[in-house]
Specification:
heterotrimer, A alpha+beta (380), B mainly alpha (408), C alpha/beta (146), A: 380 residues, Cytochrome-c3 Hydrogenase, chain B, 3-stranded antiparallel beta sheet, globular, disordered N terminus, B: 408 residues, two-stranded antiparallel sheet, 15 helices, 2 strands, 67% helix
């Protein structure tokens, strides 16, 4: 990464009379969460240098978007962070609504927040599950997390028929209203999930091995995190109180009562605990939303082919992985002139090198896991 | 298939030949000749034993997958045969009919030799273990010493496999494996010494018969140290760093496939079975007579095996520096202190009950030692519960109270 | 709510430090001259009125005759944001100063723009392509790439 080349060549020569080993973690590797390559230089077990090499999943979403109508682009956004499709939808739609000045009805805003918070729980579950899996606990925690995620995906299937690629958000609302029985299902899920979170906390937070592997490992100072444009749980784990839902509320977050869990040192432990606490807050938010959910239309009346006026807009949401933003430039036609994507996973990778250097080979995997990136979003 | 035949021939030929060399030409090791050790009976016994071991190995892969699947909210293999019991055999057939791949840059000879080097010591280990009451291939007087010595040869095979594969992942796995095996031999042997002190013999049968009180009660600390040392020796979670799949793919056997992989993979389970047997014999009381004794021994063994499977299903993995720290900073001192205390206790009871050195301790002396040791063990647990984290784990868990509201 | 600093306010503060940094006189957006980019960024980061401690997002748009870089800045301590643009003329080898030494977060984003838009960043520590391989013909996000 920074000074990648020079330091690699320099350190390849000699370290204390031994020769360093260049090890490629990936592109095919059990713990790289997709097709991702880490070019690591190791001195024995110690990490001398790390360089992420990206692009194995590059699909050119921005370029594809320039040839699609605004409605068609929604399906492209599903496929960015495929563990959090709803958040991607909402980020794109919020940019589009800023561009077109369409106001969604109140019920649609609530529905959006419900879906996005469910998605946050699902994404954090996957993040923690894969993290503990990479720690070596075979796949037991992962399967337990999958069990809860399946229930969330069932809820999504009830609402919009899809489980991964939802395309649920539309300009001025959402594609479907809640089906019959959804309130009951989600209440059951939330009751059950609160108990399950307690179970996970008992299993994970007291485990001596997990503690010894994560507490104090790879700390990231708050100022450093800000300078590196880190967002999301990773930033909050460093003790920086920054959550777009609080600081720059969108949709109906200003009417909801929730708190933002913060870490202290920004080490791996904090990054994991912040995610667990965030899931609890999400449950809290979901309960409020289901209580307050107003009646009314779920979608504003808009044209099928959206033709926004010339101009540009940047819409962002607090996605599970960080601040996900879409930058739309319109030239007045039915397709955007340019769609830029601020993907949190990609920008969070900026600190990967400094998190890993000086720690052990086994720590790379954990640091990588706690950063919780998604390769679909990194490469776009 | 060639490799399979080759391996089979080597395994079936080398094992008895080595044993016969021991039996006939080695004057230093005294063995007591038995009926089964004569002529054709010997080979029939060997054939039955190896068949039994291969059957157990194949079944254990199935048992572990089923057990861990239950821990993971899954069903596990249930398609081949009733309840999927034949899954292990299906896997075995699939593996041995696969193409035998050797990487271009690998050292072909050592690469092919390594699985045999890994498997042979584990098979040889069963020569002294009394699986059936009164039935051992070689009733060595130095039985437990032989087990420790012969299994430590396995690290040679691990290193050979890692080096010959000419892959960085394999080399990392091999180097880690050797460092770990060498470290954990020490507390393992020291703890076994306490058992030897108590029983006054190195012979496994005699150790078992000396247990008027099961040694797990007499020596709980030694039991725990041996359990974890063996987990490290077997590369099982939480000490499976030399085949850590999330870090170095599969460690020393990354490049292996087909029959050779089947040998390495099977050896893990065979070694787990063997060591569980040894632990069961060392700690779980008398070997009963007849078929009932055999079943009791298997039941005791499966308790230990279940512990290993349980670890695998629940615990994450510790880092290499922590593994070595646990071995040298915690388990080695603990084992040393334990052996000194045990020796002192034995001298004490010998002087009280007028037992000659070398004679087995009776029930009453053992009971006194048991009471003292259990009190000491409880004290150790109390001390450990106050120590917040061992070795590097000096920071306790932190919990966060969510921050105040209305940040704006 | 995050306060979006208005153009007039920023310009009035900037004129204290620089005489002539405004590139294009429009009401809509703030355009900074490319040669002043690095100095202006330092001002934005350090001056207490701005205190823009995070480079939120860096993007580039190809307008055929020129490229437009859009720097979105964010101040976490003051909870305010600021967006400015830089225009680069010419299609062959447009170059602009890197801001990695100001905000490390620009590192990967500048590499992405170099890869996909073909804009060089002077003094970037590791100016290599990031998604595509070295030697890939052209820059995919340009409008003339088909």
């Amino acid at each position: 990464m920074s000074q990648g080349n020079e330091s690699m060549n320099e350190s390849e020569k000699n370290i204390g009379g031994t020769e360093s080993v260049l090890l490629n973690l990936g592109p095919q590797h059990p713990s790289t969460h997709g097709v991702f390559r880490l070019r690591t230089l190791l001195d024995g077990e110690e990490v001398v240098d790390v360089e992420p090499i990206l692009g194995y999943l590059h699909r050119g979403s921005s370029k594809l978007a320039e040839e699609r109508s605004y409605t068609q682009i929604i399906t492209l956004t599903d496929r960015l962070d495929y563990l959090a499709g709803m958040s991607n939808n909402l980020a794109y739609i919020s940019a589009l609504e800023k561009l077109t000045d369409v106001e969604p009805p109140e019920r649609a805003r609530y529905l959006r927040v419900i879906m996005v918070e469910l998605m946050r729980i699902a994404s954090h579950l996957m993040g923690i599950g894969f993290l503990i899996n990479d720690l070596g606990a075979w796949i037991t925690p992962l399967m337990h997390m999958f069990r809860e995620r399946e229930k969330i995906l069932d809820l999504f299937e009830m609402v919009c028929g899809a489980r991964i690629t939802f395309s649920y958000m539309r300009l001025g609302g959402v594609s479907h209203d809640l089906p019959e029985g959804f309130e009951k299902s989600i209440a059951e899920f939330l009751d059950d999930f609160e108990k399950k979170i307690e179970e996970y906390e008992n299993l994970l937070l007291g485990n001596e091995i997990i503690l010894s592997r994560m507490v104090g490992v790879a700390p990231l100072a708050g100022e450093r995190a800000i300078n590196c444009s880190i967002t999301g749980p990773n930033l909050r784990a460093s003790g920086v109180d920054w959550d777009l839902r609080k600081q720059d509320p969108y949709e109906i977050y200003d009417q909801l009562d929730f708190s933002v869990p913060l870490g202290e040192n920004g080490d791996n432990w904090d990054r994991m605990v912040v995610r667990i606490e965030e899931m609890k807050e999400s449950v809290h938010i979901l309960r409020q939303c289901m209580d307050k959910l107003p009646q009314g239309p779920y979608r504003a009346d808009t044209d099928f082919f959206v033709r926004p006026p010339e101009g540009e807009a940047y819409g962002m949401v607090e996605a599970p992985k960080g601040e996900l933003g879409f930058y739309l430039v319109s030239d007045g036609s039915i397709a955007p002139y340019r769609m830029g994507i601020r993907s949190p996973s990609f920008i969070n990778l900026t600190v990967l090198r400094e998190l890993c250097v000086g720690w052990k080979l086994a720590d790379i995997i954990v640091n990588f896991g706690t950063l919780d990136i998604n390769v679909g979003e990194v490469d776009r | 298939m060639q490799m399979l035949l080759f391996n089979m021939v080597v395994l079936i030929l080398v094992t008895p030949i080595l044993l016969l060399i021991y039996a006939n030409k080695e004057p230093l090791i005294q063995y007591t000749s038995q009926d089964v050790f004569n002529g054709i009976n010997f080979f029939i016994g060997l054939f039955i034993l190896i068949s039994f071991l291969l059957f157990v190995t194949t079944m254990l892969t199935y048992v572990e997958r089923r057990l861990v699947a239950r821990m993971q909210n899954r069903i596990g293999p249930n398609r081949v045969g009733p309840f999927g019991v034949l899954q292990g055999f299906a896997d075995l057939i699939k593996l041995i009919t696969k193409e035998d791949l050797i990487p271009t840059l690998a050292n072909r000879n050592i690469f092919s030799l390594a699985p045999i080097l890994i498997m042979s010591p584990v098979l040889l280990m069963f020569a002294v273990i009394p699986i059936l009451p009164g039935f051992t291939i070689a009733d060595l007087d130095i039985g437990i010493f032989y087990v420790v010595a012969i299994t430590s040869l396995g690290s040679l095979g691990v290193f050979a496999a890692g080096w010959a594969s000419n892959s960085k992942y394999s080399l990392y796995g091999a180097v880690r494996g050797v460092a770990q095996l060498v470290s954990y031999e020490v507390p393992l042997v020291l703890s076994i010494c306490t058992i030897v002190l108590l029983s006054g013999s190195l012979n496994l049968i005699e150790i078992a018969e000396a247990q008027e009180i099961p040694f797990i009660l007499v020596q709980p600390v030694a039991f725990l140290i041996i359990l974890f040392s063996v987990a490290a020796e077997l590369n099982r979670t939480p000490f499976d760093i030399n085949e850590a799949d999330s870090e170095i793919v599969a460690g020393f056997h990354t490049e292996y496939s087909g029959t050779k992989f089947a040998l390495i993979y099977g050896t893990e389970y065979l070694a787990a079975f063997g060591w569980s047997l040894v632990i069961a014999i060392l700690f779980f009381g008398h070997l009963g007579p007849g078929i009932g004794g055999f079943l009791m021994l298997m039941a005791k063994t499966s308790i230990i095996l279940f512990l290993f499977f349980w670890f695998r299903g629940t615990w994450p993995r510790v880092r290499i520096d922590q593994i070595l720290a646990i071995a040298w900073k915690i388990m080695f001192p603990l084992a040393t202190i334990n052996i000194i205390i045990t020796a002192g206790e034995i001298l004490f009871v010998q002087s009280i009950f007028n037992i000659n050195p070398g004679n087995a301790l009776g029930l009453q002396p053992l009971a006194i030692i048991t009471i003292i040791n259990i009190i000491l063990f409880a004290g150790l647990l109390v001390i450990l519960s106050f120590v917040k984290g061992l070795g590097q784990f000096d920071k306790g868990p932190k919990r966060y109270v969510p921050d105040i509201e209305g940040v704006n | 709510m995050t306060l979006e600093l208005s153009r007039q306010y920023v310009v009035s503060l900037l004129t204290k430090h620089f005489e002539d940094v405004i590139d294009l006189d429009t009401e809509k957006h703030l355009y900074i001259k490319a040669e002043n980019l690095h100095d202006v960024c330092l001002i934005f980061k350090d001056e207490p009125e701005f205190k823009m401690d995070m480079l939120r997002y860096l993007d580039c748009v190809d307008y055929i005759d020129h490229f437009e870089l859009r720097y979105a800045l964010l101040s976490l301590s003051n909870n305010q944001s600021l967006t400015f643009k830089v225009r680069l003329w010419g299609r062959d080898d447009p170059e602009v100063a890197s801001v990695v030494d100001v905000w490390e977060g620009a590192n990967l984003q500048e590499r992405e723009i170099y890869d996909l838009m073909g804009i060089g960043f002077i003094n970037h520590p590791n100016m290599k392509r990031i998604f595509l391989w070295e030697g890939f013909p052209g820059h995919p996000l340009r409008k003339d790439f088909l």
